Amino acid sequence: MTDDPLFIILLLAVCAVAIILMIGLGGFAGGGAFNKKNANKLMRYRIGAQFVAVLLIVGFVWLRGGFG
Hints:
The protein is mainly α.
């Protein structure tokens, strides 16, 4: 499975979501100007990346015959 290109893309999307989440949490914990300037933007990026990751997960399962 690790040699499947779609699986590798899926893992990269999930990692991107985790990285964006960690940056957002770090900014929230630190507060200050960075948080005020970037909190909403990071939230929108995370939601978009999550949407893509979920679509890739569902597509991977569907294409590989996991839904029946």
